[in-house]
TrEMBL record:
Similarity section: Belongs to the Gfo/Idh/MocA family.
Enzyme Commission designation: 1.1.1.18
Known partners and oligomeric status: Homotetramer.
Protein's name according to its UniProt entry: Inositol 2-dehydrogenase
InterPro entries (UniProt xref): Gfo-Idh-MocA_inositol_DH, Gfo/Idh/MocA-like_OxRdtase_C, Gfo/Idh/MocA-like_OxRdtase_N, MI/DCI_dehydrogenase, NAD(P)-bd_dom_sf
Catalytic activity: myo-inositol + NAD(+) = scyllo-inosose + NADH + H(+)
Top EC group: oxidoreductase
Domain annotation Gfo/Idh/MocA-like oxidoreductase C-terminal: ranges: 137-320
PANTHER family in alphabetical order: INOSITOL 2-DEHYDROGENASE, PTHR43593
MF (Gene Ontology): inositol 2-dehydrogenase (NAD+) activity; nucleotide binding
Gene that encodes the chain: iolG
Function field: Involved in the oxidation of myo-inositol (MI) to 2-keto-myo-inositol (2KMI or 2-inosose).
Domain Gfo/Idh/MocA-like oxidoreductase N-terminal: 4-125
């Protein structure tokens, strides 16, 4: 069976996913697309070089008879509306992060999915599908460093055009999700510490930031978020355990000795760092969706990430340690 997909939002990542669904993966094809206007959707269809119909609105895509499942890759503030509409139409929906821009919005999705009685929603936390994070998790699960005590993460973008608190909602949300998955733990509090702002940052962005999360099992996690580090796209995670220390493996590059220096290359964009993870994430989603099964990060995971983002935003403004309090996890997501 070939899963026929409708995509909403044909910007940077929308086109990436259109390409991978039609040209790289098996068992799926994009048959419908929308953006803010018909022309934008048609231009993306032409650029990617696929046979698909352009629609004027995301709701038309969701309700199109030829669409079996929906992929939402539009701007974050539009996600809630489209995910709720897909649930209403009874169609499986893959939504890029963030699931919604507030925890309340995520809870509305959780409630709608439970009311529908079907597991329909997956959130695009692709790091769970990354070979490096999967290796780190396998080592942790087999007791390779004993109980983990401290995690030190860094999330560095060469340049990111964010303002205000968007970094905590749109960027660190990946750490908020992947560290819960890796450690099988939940957060209890958040603190955000601001060093002086880099002189290379424009606008009102406080960059870099240091986030400190404490977990239910007593771990401390630090996340350095640096959205404009200039030198590359660099994702780090060091786990300090009772009997050893483990590091997130880094993508291989050709070691170069030249001009009295010994060096390795650094990837410069998330698209290249996580290209394999996106492929695995979507192939597994397509396969599970075709079988009517649930797979991968759920709407509940989207909700927990949003609660964590909200607590970090509050902590940045209050400069206090803020509690992270979750609603009770519904049996539907256990
Ligand atoms: N998982 C990841 O690593 C990752 C990477 C990049 C982006 N994202 C997420 O994907 C989403 C899109 O990001 P992007 O980088 O492609 O942004 P983008 O600005 O390049 O594209 C967003 C597109 O959505 C369209 N859009 C806005 N409102 C719409 C509406 N009502 N209906 C249909 N289309 C609409 C815009 O016109 C634009 O073409 C964001 O939520 C972002 O956080 C995730
Ligand atoms: O939307 C992107 C994407 O989610 C990347 O994975 C992240 O590193 C960036 O900070 C963010 O802007």
């Amino acid at each position: 069976m070939t899963l026929s997909i409708g995509i909403i939002g044909t910007g940077a990542i929308g086109k990436e996913h259109m390409r991978r669904l039609n040209h790289t993966l098996k068992g799926a094809r994009v048959v419908a697309a929308s953006d803010v206007g018909l022309e934008q959707a048609q231009a993306a269809i032409d650029e990617v070089g696929i046979e698909a119909r352009a629609y004027a609105s995301g709701h038309d895509v969701i309700n199109a008879a030829e669409v079996d499942a929906v992929v939402v890759t539009s701007w974050g503030p539009t996600h809630e509306e489209f995910v709720l509409a897909a649930i209403e139409a009874g169609k499986p929906v893959f939504c890029e992060k963030p699931l919604a821009t507030t925890a309340e919005g995520c809870l509305r999705i959780v409630e709608a999915e439970i009311a529908s009685g079907r597991a329909l929603v997956q959130v695009g936390f692709m790091r769970r599908f990354d070979w490096a994070y999967r290796q780190l998790k396998a080592l942790l699960d087999e007791g390779g460093i004993g109980q983990p005590l401290i995690a030190k993460c860094a999330h560095r973008n060469a340049q990111a055009n964010f303002s205000g608190d968007a970094g905590l909602i749109d960027s660190c949300v990946h750490e908020f999700d992947v560290m819960r998955w890796l450690l099988e733990d939940d957060y209890v509090s958040a603190q955000v510490i601001q060093p002086r702002v880099s002189s290379l940052v424009e606008g009102d962005l406080q960059d870099p930031s240091l986030i400190i999360l404490r977990t239910r099992k007593g771990m401390v996690i630090t996340i350095e978020s640096f959205l404009n580090c200039q030198y590359g796209y660099d994702i780090r995670c060091e786990l300090v355990g009772e009997s050893g220390v483990a590091d997130l493996p880094q993508p291989a590059s050709v070691p170069l000795r030249h001009s009295a220096r010994d060096s390795l290359g650094v990837i410069t964009h998330w698209k290249d760092r996580f290209i394999d993870a996106f492929d695995v994430e979507f192939q597994e989603w397509v396969d599970a969706t075709a079988k009517g099964e649930r797979h991968g990060p759920t709407a509940w995971d989207g909700y927990v990430a949003a609660v964590t983002s909200d607590a970090c935003v509050k902590a940045r403004h209050s400069q206090q340690v803020e509690p992270i309090a979750l609603a009770e996890r519904p049996a539907f997501y256990r």
